[in-house]
Amino acid sequence: EADIYQTPRYLVIGTGKKITLECSQTMGHDKMYWYQQDPGMELHLIHYSYGVNSTEKGDLSSESTVSRIRTEHFPLTLESARPSHTSQYLCASSELNGGVETQYFGPGTRLLVL
Amino acid sequence: KNQVEQSPQSLIILEGKNCTLQCNYTVSPFSNLRWYKQDTGRGPVSLTIMTFSENTKSNGRYTATLDADTKQSSLHITASQLSDSASYICVVSRGLTGGGNKLTFGTGTQLKVEL
C-alpha cells in the first residue's frame, strides 16, 4: 500500500465555488501527477511536477491549477467549479528504480459539481 | 499515434474460473508495460511490470505476458475470486527524447466475478 493520500474522498459542490483537492505523500518522491478519469474511461494527465516549484500542464487541457511549495504536497485548485468539472481526480507520485519509473496512486477524489 | 487498446471491454466470470485480458498497443519507442488493478472508487494499484526483454511476469494468481514484436500483452487470472472484481488497466510507457517517460493508459477491462 502506497503512502499517498487524497482529501476529500467525495465532494459535492455548487457551480461557481472555489475548491482545492489535497494530495500528500510521505515517500519523499519528487515527481507527482494529477489525472482526471471519467467513469469507464482512461486516465488523462492534467498536471505534473518534477519537484518543488515545478509545475507543468499535462496532455488534457484543464482549467485547474496546481502548486508545489513542499515536496509532500501537490494541491489542485479550481477557482470556479462547473458541472463539466465533475469527474474523478487521481493523484500519483513516482520513484525511479533501476531505470524503471513506478507510479503510486492515491484513492482519488470524486467531484460532483451541481 | 500512441494508443493502448484493451479487450474485452467488460467480462463476467464465475468464481474459480480463469480468464485472460488482452492489451494491444502502438506506443513507440516502447519502454515498459504495466498492468494495474483499479477497484471501484479507488486509485490503480500496480500488478506487474515488464520491460522489452521480459515476456512473462507473475504476481500470485496474476500472470502477464508480453510479445514486443506483435505489441501485445495479456493478463491471465487463475482461479478467480470475488475480490478480483475490478477494472484492469494496461499502461504502456514510452521514452522521451531528452529523458523521461510518458504513459499511455488503456480504458481498462471491467471484470466482475460472480458466485
Written overview of the protein:
The complex is a heterodimer of chains A (114) and B (115). Chain A has 114 residues and is an all-beta fold. Chain A is 0% helix and 50% strand. Chain A has strands spanning 4-7, 10-13, 19-25, 31-37, 44-49, 56-57, 65-66, 76-78, 87-97, 100-105, 109-113. Chain B contains no helices and eleven strands. In chain B, strands 2, 4, 5, 9, 10 and 11 form a six-stranded mixed β-sheet that branches. In chain B, strands 1-3-8-7-6 form a five-stranded antiparallel β-sheet, with no helix packed on it. At the A-B interface, β9 and β10 of A face β5 and β10 of B.
Number of strands of chain B: 11
Task: Describe the global form of chain B.
Answer: elongated
Instruction: Please count the helical segments of chain A.
Output: 0
Distance between the amino and carboxyl termini of chain B: 41 Å
Content-based structural category of chain B: mainly beta
The residue fraction in helices of chain B comes out at under 10%
Mean pLDDT over all positions of chain A: 92
The Rg value of chain A, from CA coordinates, equals 14 Å
Strand composition percent of chain A: over 45%
Q: The biggest beta sheet of chain A, please?
A: 7 strands, mixed
Explain the layout of strands and helices.
The complex is a heterodimer of chains A (114) and B (115).
Chain A: E1 4-7, E2 10-13, E3 19-25, E4 31-37, E5 44-49, E6 56-57, E7 65-66, E8 76-78, E9 87-97, E10 100-105, E11 109-113
Parallel strand pairs in A: 2-11
Antiparallel strand pairs in A: 1-3, 3-8, 4-5, 4-9, 5-6, 7-8, 9-10, 9-11
Chain B: E1 4-7, E2 10-14, E3 19-25, E4 30-38, E5 45-51, E6 56-59, E7 62-67, E8 72-77, E9 86-95, E10 101-105, E11 109-114
Parallel strand pairs in B: 2-11
Antiparallel strand pairs in B: 1-3, 3-8, 4-5, 4-9, 6-7, 7-8, 9-10, 9-11
